[in-house]
Amino acid sequence: MLNGKTALVTGSTSGIGLGIAKALARQGANIVLNGFGDVDGPRAEVLEAGAQAGVRVAYHGADMGRPADIEDLLRYSTDQFGRVDILVNNAGIQHVAPVHEFPVEKWDAILAINLSSAFHTTRLALPGMLSAGWGRIINVASVHGLVGSTQKSAYVAAKHGIVGLTKVTALETATTGVTCNAICPGWVLTPLVQKQVDAKAEQHGVSNEEAQRILLGEKEPSMQFTTPEELGELAVFLCSPAGGNVRGVAWNMDGGWAAQ
Ligand code: NAD
After folding, report:
1. Distance 175 CA to ligand 1 centre (A)
2. Are 9 and 17 in contact (CB under 8 A)?
3. Considering the chain, what is the average pLDDT of its residues?
4. 182-200: per-residue pLDDT in tens?
5. Which of 19, 74, 174, 228 has the fewest Cβ atoms within 10 Å of its own Cβ atom?
6. Cα 179 to Cα 1, 23, 88, distances in angstroms
7. Strands of 250-253's sheet, edge to edge?
8. What family is this (predicted)?
């Protein structure tokens, strides 16, 4: 379905971004990976997912907190594949602390990586999509783009912000072949959330499994983690012809979290 298209997925060396990159590669899209840590493992996984379609995979290590790096990432993606057709703004970090104790540098980093990076990638990728007459921008927000939780002032502010950016981008492109939507996961068991499971295990003196149950029980009625594979399939739907008139939504996949 996505043969000949190029998808840039930020923060795709791990977790949700990697799951989305694999799902898009399975549909035939060439992939630009981005993120920190091991690159060879994720690259091999994406190549394998796209092997039947003969997809190509490139990597750029831009720090999504730095606008100059982001400009370089977009230039590199265009040099590699001609154009960015699908932009998945996924890179994100978390820090938990009460608002009056929240470290200022953590606030700045979370706003830069989780929110401003999506503004920069969007402003740089959109002109090419508009001139091609087709494009998909998928912002990985969070259920925290819809509701708040204690200790997460920067994260919740950034995620509400990216839902707002999604709506404005969708409105400005509403009469074109470019769509912009947000995906709002509940708990997904990635390294980002494992840190919060570890903190619960320590706080309550319980096992990893029990800490997972406590975490889910506080927020997620299904008592199940959403998976990167499920989120990948949602991204594929948004890229499909059937998703062509889905515009400006914040689509939660959260086990009922925001329904409460
Ligand atoms: P993760 O820690 O597994 O992956 C984060 C990815 O972002 C990694 O590839 C990491 O290298 C990359 N990254 C971090 N800082 C970066 C930077 N400055 N520049 C470039 N890349 C950077 O986390 P995840 O859980 O897969 O989270 C991915 C996105 O999903 C985030 O935006 C997060 O807020 C969102 N999300 C996660 C959950 C969850 O429960 N895990 C729920 C809702 C939303």
Report:
1. 31
2. yes
3. 98
4. 999 999 999 989 999 999 9
5. 174
6. 17, 19, 12
7. 57-60, 30-34, 6-9, 86-89, 135-140, 178-185, 250-253
8. Belongs to the short-chain dehydrogenases/reductases (SDR) family.
Could you tell which of 10, 12, 13, 16 is best to mutate to test the pocket of ligand 1, judged by most ligand atoms within 8 Å of the CB?
16
Asked whether this complex has an ipTM greater than 0.90, the answer is: yes
List of E strands, 67-221: 86-89, 135-140, 178-185
Catalytic positions: 155
Report residue 104 as tokens.
Answer: 């200022």
CATH of segment(s) 6-188+227-259? 3.40.50.720
Determine contact, residues 19/31, Cβ cutoff 8 Å. Answer: no
Domain boundaries, the chain: 6-188+227-259, 189-225
> According to the model, what pLDDT value does residue 192 have?
87
Q: What percent of the chain has pLDDT over 70?
A: 100
pLDDT greater than 90 at residue 91: yes
Sign of the alpha-carbon torsion through 63, 181, 76, 43: positive
Residue in 60, 162, 192 to alter for ligand 1 test, most ligand atoms within 8 A of Cβ? 192
Question: How far is residue 115 CA from its own chain's centroid?
Answer: 11
**Token pair in block for residue 54:** 């003969």
